[in-house]
TrEMBL record:
GO terms for molecular function: 4-aminobutyrate:2-oxoglutarate transaminase activity. The gene is gabT. It catalyses: 4-aminobutanoate + 2-oxoglutarate = succinate semialdehyde + L-glutamate; (S)-3-amino-2-methylpropanoate + 2-oxoglutarate = 2-methyl-3-oxopropanoate + L-glutamate. SUPFAM superfamilies: PLP-dependent transferases (SSF53383). Pathway: Amino-acid degradation; 4-aminobutanoate degradation. Keywords: Aminotransferase, Pyridoxal phosphate, Transferase. Its EC number is 2.6.1.19, 2.6.1.22. Transmembrane segments: none annotated. The lineage of its organism: Bacteria, Bacillati, Bacillota, Bacilli, Bacillales. InterPro entries: 4NH2But_aminotransferase_bac, Aminotrans_3, Aminotrans_3_PPA_site, Class-III_PLP-dep_AT, PyrdxlP-dep_Trfase, PyrdxlP-dep_Trfase_major, PyrdxlP-dep_Trfase_small. This is (S)-3-amino-2-methylpropionate transaminase. Its cofactor is pyridoxal 5'-phosphate. It comes from Scopulibacillus cellulosilyticus. The keyword Transferase applies. Belongs to the class-III pyridoxal-phosphate-dependent aminotransferase family.
C-alpha cells in the first residue's frame, strides 16, 4: 500500500532551521506555531514542507480546509477573479460575487424566513458584527456566551472567550456587558447523573443565571457554538440547545449560532445547528467558507440585519472579490462531491477508531464528536479523569515526527481534535489513523519509562 506521510529529515530540516532563525528575529513569539517547519506545497489532505517532508493533514489549518488544500475548482475561480480585478471595495463599487454568495447562503441557511448576509474578513469580525447587529436591533446591551466557548482574539471576542491563557492573560480590561453561562460537559458531569438529569441541572443553572447574573430583558443575544471547538469538541444534547433556544424566544433574546469552525460540511451539514432542529436568528461563518482565503459573514433574519443604517457595517476588505469567488467555488465543491455525506462517513470511521483506542488505552478518557468533528480526551487514567496535557503534547509531537499534523484543544489542553479535509482519501485517512495510534503508543511508553527513572 502506498505511503503518503514521508518525513525524511529531523524536524526542523535545514531549510526550515534557516527560516526559523529569521522567524525568531522578525516575528513575535506571541504568534504561535505547531510543527516547526514551513509549508512549500499543499494539495488535498497532504502538505509538503520546504525540506521535502510530506504530512497528512488532520489539522486543516484549524478547520479552514474542508474542501482540501488548493482544490482545482477554488484555484481556478481565484485565478479568473485575479485576471478580472482584485479589489474595488464593495462600499465603493459593488461586484456581483458578493450578491451571488449572499443569495446562496441565504437559501442554504436554516429557516424559510427572509434572510440577508453581511460579509467580513475573519471569524472574530463576524462575531463582533453579530454583536453590533443584535444590539442595534434589540436596543439592549448584554451579550451571553458560554463557559469554554471560543469566539476570537479581538477585545470583544476575547472577552466572550473563556480560556485565559493564552487568549486573555494580561490583555485586560475587557469589554463590558459580557456574561458567561453554563454549558454541559457530559464527560465531567457529576457522578450518578444521567445525561438527561445533567441537562436539566444545567438548564436550571441557566435560568438561575438569568436571575443572579444578568436580567433577561437586558440581553441582546446569546451566542453558542453548536459544538464547542477550542473548548474541546464538546457536543451538547438536542435537549440543551433547544432549551436555551426556547428561553431566548421567551425573553426576546436573539439566538446566534457561531458556525465558524462547525460550518461548511464539517459535521455532515452545511451548518451544525441543523442537527438540533433550531433556527437561529443570526449565524456567524468563516474558516472553511473560503478554503483558506480570508472571508467571513453574518447570516440573519432580514428584519434584524436591515436595522443598521448605511456605513454602520462593513469595512475596506469586507467580502473581498477573492473571498467571494473562493466561497462560491467551495459551495459548488460541497454539492458536486457530496461532502456532507462524505463527512458523515469519515466521522463514523474516525469515531469507531477512537473508541477502539479508548478501549486499549487507559489514558483516553472519552472519544466524542459530531460528523467529522471528532476528538479524544487524554487523562492520567479513566478513574481520576485528571487532564493529561503533557501526554497530549507528546502525542502531537510524535505524530508530526511521523508525518501527521494534529491539534490540541480543551480548557486544560488535553484534547486531541481532528479537522482533516473532507476530501481526504480512504487510504490517507487510514494511514493517518495508524500514525495516530503509533504516536499514542510511543508517547505512553516514553511517559512510563520517564516515571520509572
Amino acid at each position: 500500500m502506498k505511503k503518503f506521510a514521508d518525513v525524511k529529515t529531523n524536524l526542523p530540516g535545514e531549510k526550515a532551521k534557516a527560516l526559523l532563525d529569521k522567524r525568531k528575529r522578525f516575528v513575535p513569539k506571541g504568534v504561535s506555531n505547531g510543527v516547526p517547519t514551513f509549508a512549500d506545497t499543499a494539495e488535498g489532505a497532504l502538505v509538503k514542507d520546504v525540506d521535502g517532508n510530506t504530512f497528512i493533514d488532520f489539522a486543516g489549518a484549524i478547520g479552514t480546509i474542508n474542501v482540501g488544500h488548493s482544490h482545482p475548482k477554488v484555484t481556478k475561480a481565484l485565478k479568473e477573479q485575479v485576471d478580472r480585478f482584485i479589489h474595488t471595495g464593495f462600499n465603493v463599487m459593488m461586484y456581483e460575487g458578493y450578491i451571488k454568495l449572499a443569495e446562496k447562503l441565504a437559501k442554504l441557511a436554516p429557516g424559510d424566513h427572509d434572510k440577508q448576509v453581511l460579509f467580513l474578513n475573519s471569524g472574530a469580525e463576524a462575531v463582533e458584527n453579530a454583536v453590533k447587529i443584535a444590539r442595534k436591533y434589540t436596543k439592549r446591551q448584554a451579550i451571553v456566551s458560554f463557559k469554554r466557548g471560543y469566539h476570537g482574539r479581538t477585545l470583544m471576542t476575547m472577552t466572550m472567550t473563556s480560556k485565559v491563557k493564552p487568549y486573555k492573560y494580561e490583555f485586560g480590561p475587557f469589554a463590558p456587558e459580557i456574561y458567561k453561562a453554563p454549558y454541559p460537559y457530559y464527560y465531567r458531569r457529576p457522578e450518578g447523573f444521567s445525561e438527561a438529569d445533567y441537562d436539566e441541572q444545567v438548564l436550571q443553572e441557566f435560568k438561575d443565571f438569568l436571575v443572579g447574573d444578568v436580567a433577561p430583558e437586558t440581553i441582546a443575544a446569546v451566542i453558542m457554538e453548536p459544538v464547542q471547538g477550542e473548548g474541546g469538541f464538546i457536543v451538547p444534547s438536542k435537549k440543551f440547545v433547544q432549551g436555551i433556544y426556547e428561553l431566548c424566544k421567551q425573553h426576546g433574546i436573539l439566538f446566534v449560532s457561531d458556525e465558524i469552525q462547525t460550518g461548511f460540511t464539517r459535521t455532515g451539514r452545511y451548518f451544525a445547528i441543523e442537527h438540533f432542529d433550531v433556527v437561529p436568528d443570526l449565524i456567524t461563518v468563516s474558516k472553511s467558507m473560503g478554503a483558506g482565503v480570508p472571508i467571513s459573514g453574518v447570516i440573519g433574519r432580514s428584519e434584524i440585519m436591515d436595522k443598521s443604517e448605511p456605513g454602520e457595517l462593513g469595512g475596506t476588505y469586507s467580502g473581498s472579490p477573492l473571498g467571494c469567488s473562493a466561497a462560491l467555488a467551495v459551495l459548488d465543491v460541497i454539492e458536486e462531491e457530496n461532502l456532507n455525506q462524505r463527512a458523515e462517513k469519515i466521522g463514523e470511521r474516525v469515531l469507531n477508531k477512537f473508541n477502539e483506542l479508548a478501549e486499549k488505552y487507559d489514558c483516553i478518557g472519552e472519544a466524542r464528536g459530531l460528523g467529522a468533528m471528532c476528538a479524544i480526551e487524554m487523562v492520567t487514567d479513566k478513574n481520576s479523569k485528571e487532564p493529561n496535557k503533557a501526554l497530549t503534547n507528546a502525542i502531537i509531537q510524535e505524530a508530526s515526527n511521523r508525518g501527521l499534523l494534529l491539534l490540541s484543544a480543551g480548557m486544560y489542553g488535553n484534547v486531541i481534535r481532528v479537522l482533516m479535509p473532507i476530501v481526504i482519501t480512504d487510504e490517507q485517512l487510514e494511514e493517518g489513523l495508524d500514525i495516530l495510534e503509533e504516536s499514542i503508543k510511543a508517547a505512553v511508553s516514553k511517559q512510563s519509562e520517564a516515571s520509572l527513572v
